[in-house]
Amino acid sequence: MRFQSGFVARAVRVAMETRAIERPFLVQEVLAPAGWSDARIEAWLDWGDSLSPPPSVAGGWLNGAPDAWAGRLAAKGLAEGVFADTKAAGAFAAELAATMQLGLATPVGHAATAGVVDLADPSAAARLSAHRADRTTQRLARQSAEALTDALCAVADAVDRCEGARGDCADPMRNPALGRAAAAARGRGATDADILRAVDGERPSLTLRPLADGAQLVVLADRTQTAAGSPEVLAAAEAALDGGLVVVFDPRDAEVLAEPAANRVLIDLAAVATLSDGTFDLLPDLVRLWVTALDLQSDDAVLALGLEGLLDALAPLDGDPAARAEALGALTASVAVQTSVELARLRSPCGEWEGLKAQIVDVEKARRDRLSANSFPLAAQAIEILDRTSGPRRHIALGLFVDDAEARLRLGRGAPAVVDLFETADGGIGRRLAPALAAALVRSGGDVQAAERRLFGRRTLVEAPGVDHSALRAFGFTDVELAAVEQALGAAESFDAVFTAPVLDPGFIRDVLGLEDGDGPLLNLLGVPEEAEAAAAQWVFGHGHLRDWEGAPTDLAALLADPAGFEGRLRLALEPF
Prior knowledge:
The protein is of the alpha/beta class. The chain has a four-stranded mixed β-sheet, sandwiched between helices. It has a three-stranded parallel β-sheet with strand order 4-5-6, sandwiched between helices. The chain has a two-stranded antiparallel sheet with strand order 1-2. The chain is 51% helix and 10% strand.
């Protein structure tokens, strides 16, 4: 086999930099792509540390782990006749490592499964209920960690924004804003030690690393039963709301998914689209490389090439995104089959091939029939590949779904959302409309700035409904107080952090407004109606979502309202493949 895919030439153009990354008990100097976050680099280092034996390549990017891993596979392929000579083996290793450097793909470790639940089994309801409870607990723990992180950052902010002596600013008795922030943090589960660290300026970053996902549960269902909406199916749907559950209709598929799979890769379709200008021309070369790599890694007859980033890859493009997703899934599967046939000639077919050959041929005929109605060129390309591919296979099953939080982090991907959180140059966390949604808005003639104002607010009370500068002047605010309020609105998340000391001088609050700071929310004490305050808050801080946004183009309303649900519908298009 020969690989001259051009990934190496593209990887040479990736800007690299040496970063100081905190590791257990030390700080490492690591060479990595300049655009990667520290958390992403750490996830790759964790993967490198998990290799057995550890990589022996001195230096190199990511401490040499990708090059060492690819080199081992190339050496095995050379010894077993997959590659004709050392030049071909070296080209394979270089191209494979380059795909990781470009952020196109990452190997995935051992898959944890929680077994199979047959909906016809009387115990199915109890199994589904337990699974749902476990996933709910994990989700609530994640949300609690994020809320606690925000609360502790607010404690640090209360000290940083204080303009008095350091000792006074760090004393909740002398700094009312700190007292309120500390009380809120304690209410969210922070210990005194956590609060003291935040007072000293430590800002936790719990949300930058994903919590471990629980084991995936495989549910075997009957298509007729599902179409009828039986109670068992509805219970499975309820359990699936928290993720970690896949429904299949074929007992053989259930068996395959229930077996722990070591041969898995996660492919970032959005990165592939970006690198090939939205054409996906590089996808066949990428799939061929990784099917070969996974086969050399293990003799397992089951492969999984998880397709990640469907929403980000397809939302900016014209045409039906579900049909395009179907074509991408078909092309991935077809190239994988073609590569499997090629590997079978070099390494021998899998033992189960003869017994399953007829069934597999029938499945692929059904795929061809389904694709005949798909007008995208990638679907025709998939059919053409299948039509000229025949012979025994190295693998009997192929999956297109891989659920692994650490692998997603290595690709810099998170769950689909309207808001994109990113790490700024100074290590802070920035917010923006998700780039794919912004591109889709531009394509449909929508207004990106209007969408971001709806999400994040205008960060000013100028012309705000309910409470504006005129209303505040009526209470006694002067240009000095209004300027302080406007400055504070840029970083605040609620009025409670703005209409208080030290943003407002305690003397002004006491002598002009006739109130005492700390007696309660200042706007409420001034008699501002709740409806007026809520309207002003939405103007300043935004809605946090794009549901019911009047400015949404008609064809994008569902996408903007629920990106995760929209991607879920795209993933359904992959199910037949």
